[in-house]
Task: structure prediction
Amino acid sequence: ASHYEKLLGHTDFASARTNVQKAIELQPEGPDTRMLLAEIETVAGDYDAAIAAADASVALGDMARSYAWRCMIRTIANRDLAEKALPDCNMAVQIEPTYPDGLSARGMLYERLGRHKEAIADFNAAMTLTGRAVIPIYGRAIAEKKLGMKGPAEADFAFAKYLSPGVAKWFGTPEMLMH
Result:
């Protein structure tokens, strides 16, 4: 199981938070622990805490990853999409144009905003960099379906679910999960 699948299956968020807070106390200048906290809070559904942890990671200098994750959190939460999420995604891609998570996050956002062709372009770029990454495959399937590309969409949905049966959870709201 992938790192994200393990997080999605985790339910003892209080224990996870406590452990990460201890790590932050031991290494207060480490952005990695802040990003781990952002991931935990996102999976737990506490988007305000997740964004705050990503903010702290940005402040500590972990730029592309933190901007991409903050964009993804806002996209999953369906919050401040055009005002804050899009600038975060664009900043992640500007800082590191070959960062697949930045491209995937922006693809998710474009999909949420109904910009399906741009979403497919970002998902394709992310897949070029990573190969079989499940988020861009599933995201591309959603965009393809909405553009009426039934065959490619069905193939991508099947492949993404084969790679990670829980992938739909990363796309947030029920209307994005339907296919």
Q: What stands out?
A: Residues 1-5, 173-179 have pLDDT under 50 and may be disordered. The longest helix spans residues 63-77. The two ends are 24 Å apart (CA to CA).
